[in-house]
Each structure stands twice: as structure tokens, then as C-alpha cells.
Amino acid sequence: QTVTVTDDVATVIACPGTISVNVDYANDCKTDSVITTQMLMDAYYEAHKSEATEITTSTNETKAPYAYHKTGDKIDKIYDECGGELSFFVGLTNTEETSSVTVNVALGETDKYVYWTMKDSTGNAATCSTQVVAKDDKSPEVTAPGSVTVHTSTKDNICSGDTSLVYQNVIDSLQIKECSGYTVTYSVDGATAVTM
Questions:
Q1: Sign of CA dihedral 6, 8, 60, 54
Q2: Residue 25: DSSP 8-state
Q3: Helix, strand or coil, per DSSP, at residue 83
Q4: From its phi and psi, is residue 57 left (phi > 0), alpha (psi between -120 and 50) or beta?
Q5: Averaged pLDDT, groups of 10, the chain, 196 residues long
């Protein structure tokens, strides 16, 4: 009698948390972010690092559970609880399996996800998804306006001149580059500060 042992149970995947990416004013306040399988590998390592063993050989000959191998500072191979090598994939759909994807997301969008797949050495697959959200953590870029020339006249032996600054004049002259909205406060020597 022959007894055949098969492995048809997928290793539990460790899904990365929400991914925050920075928007770019020069890209219409959107971002084109490259997301790779390295993030999924790192998440799996973090979930099992208390049990993990680093190996220096290219293969896990002793079948050490949760073993991992590094090239430089990056983990490039990880093994499951049975010592089998795991394969990692990412996609923009739940059927795509590649090593990296580019996600385009704008501020306020809530429907952007990447889909992760992890397979063990016998092909059993586990999947999950992670939301990608945009954030703006850059200070506004402001170009200082040029000098304002005030023409003066003499009246009652006093040399004086008047000018007026309105909100739109100030905004146009500052050439503000910002994605999340802004408040402008300005003042003129000898006048009260104004907030718009």
C-alpha cells in the first residue's frame, strides 16, 4: 500500500496595512507610485520574525521554518512554516500576478487597491488586498511677488501715496503651488494684517 502525502493548504498571508503615498503638484496633485512585492515579503517577515532564522545559503537545505535570506539589507527569499520557499506577487486586479505595479491616485480617492498573492512551493495560493490613499505632506511652494511701486504726490508739504491690495491681486502675485487648499495672511507696513 502506498500512502501519498499532499499539501493543499495555503500558508496564511500577512497583508500589508494601508499604503499612504504623497501627491505631486506638478502631476495635477496626483501620484504615480510604484508598489513592489518587497512590501508583502517584509510584512510576512514581520509577522514571523520571532520564529524566523536568517540563512546565508541560496537554498533552505535544512527546511528551517520561516527562514529568510538577504541580499544587502533586503530580504529576497522567505520560507514558510514547513521550510518551503514562498513566491510573492502584486497586481492592480485580483487576477494579475507581477512583481510591481504603478498606482495612480488623487487626494480624496477611496477606491484604489493593490492585490497581493502569496504561493507556497506546491502552488497553494493565499490572497488579500490593501488600500492605497493619497496624502499631501508638502508645504506650499510660494514665489515672492515683485515690488509694488507707489506714486507719491506732495500736499500740504507732505509727500504721500496710496495703493490698495485686494485678495485676488495677492493670490495672483504669489503663484502658490499647493494641493490641499491654503490660507493667505499678508500685511503692509503700517497697516493691519489681513487673512483671506
A1: negative
A2: G
A3: coil
A4: beta
A5: 64 93 79 94 96 92 94 95 95 96 91 96 94 82 66 66 61 64 62 49
Per-residue H/E/C for 92-134: CCCCCCECEEEEEEECCCCCCEEEEEEECCCCCEEEEEEEEEE
Residues 2, 7: Cα–Cα separation, whole Å: 16
Residue among 26, 36, 88, 77 nearest 54 (CA):
77
Q: How far apart are CA 2 and CA 9, in angstroms?
A: 22
Grid look-up 502658490 returns 176
Q: What is the pLDDT of residue 10?
A: 74
Give Cα 81 to chain centroid, integer Å: 31
Q: Please report the sign of the dihedral spanned by the C-alpha atoms of residue 102, residue 106, residue 112, residue 114.
A: positive
Number of other residues whose CB lies within 10 A of the CB of residue 160: 10
User: What are the Cα distances from residue 50, in Å, to 53, 66, 163?
Assistant: 9, 9, 70
SS3 state of residue 85: strand
Q: Give the integer Cα–Cα distance in Å for 78 and 88.
A: 10
Please tell me the predicted confidence (pLDDT) of residue 74. Answer: 95
- pLDDT at position 90 is 98
**Which residues partner with 54 through β-bridges?**
68
